[in-house]
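Hi L.,

As promised, Right handed beta helix domain-containing protein:
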Amino acid sequence: MVFRTLLALGVVAALLPACGGGSDGGGDDPPPTPAATSTAPDGKAALGAAPTTKAPTPTAGSSGGTLRAGNPNGKAAVPAEARAVDTTKPNRVVGNGTAASCTGKAVATAVAAGGVVTFSCGPDPITITMTQTAKVKNSTKRVVLDGGGKVTLSGAGKRRILYMNTCDDAQGPPPGDCTNQDHPQLTVQNLTFASGSSIGADPDPEVTNGGGGGALYARGGRLKVINSRFVKNRCDSGGPDLGGAAIRVLDQNRDLPVYVVSSTFGGAAGQGGACSNGGALSSIGVSWVILNSLFSHNEAIGYGANEAANGTPGGGNGGAIYCDGNTFTLRVAGTLMERNHAREGGGAIFYVSNDRSGTLRIESSTLRRNPSDEFETIPGIFYRANGEAQITASKIT
């Protein structure tokens, strides 16, 4: 049975206007129809601080760049552990003050060495084309990559930009269970990730559990993203569960959430991500907290859904966000999602908790004009989980 109509299910609160104006604030879904670097000792990880209601300064510790990502009208409070890391005393600096000194190789070398990494590439904004994927070593305690609001890392449409995977022995053997490591802890802030591609990048599906993550792939450890932009990223165009044109995440430590704060995915026509599922974000069994962010013009371009219908590659779910698995949560607050598109279900969000234990919360957010070509349970959303979705002070049309 294909869901082609809007089902008024899963809403426990009235869909109220959001604050501000302008740019405000394998599942079981139904089957479809057919350079220079300087070094210093590494520091301690920044995740895990006590929560606070004080709003963060997204570019704290950066070099005062001009990047301002996310939803400018988002007013959601940000907990301390989701705030930007102070990078005024970096462990490593990419570049020696000139644009020519800031190379993809220097970025990859700094990421492999770990610690707090900043950039010194001259006074002007710069795009650094990655000639190899920057890979986090499993022995690293943390990596903080801060572009100072001026740096774009580009995959040139040829490669994934940043990779962390505690289940990949090529990055060093982790102690114990690779899926539940407290490190590495990866933070990216004040950066733009452009034209990353994981198409055909994962020959061993056991290592990456389905692939995806055109710009950034993270499995194990912890990840947070602050004041960053993701534009024109891609992953494979077909396949069930495969997803995340911008970011793919699996197996976070102790099932703690991924924080995405004041960040933009797409943002304008022609700038969005495209993937089989999850034109921006994708995960299996991972919790997310998404605050004061913007998702627009992202697409889920697969078809056949999950499980893939006969004669189809599968996919097409979650134009912006694809979440599948068992016990996990998704909280979206102070966020604008518009003009995302799913070829199958969930033009903005696809959320399926297979064991019905997960929950979805949408707070003080606006979701509008996110078409689902085949099925949805709330406009722009396909939701199947524990009870009804928790939607407060939000506008969903």
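The first strand starts at residue 92 and ends at 94.

Thanks again for sending the construct details.

K.
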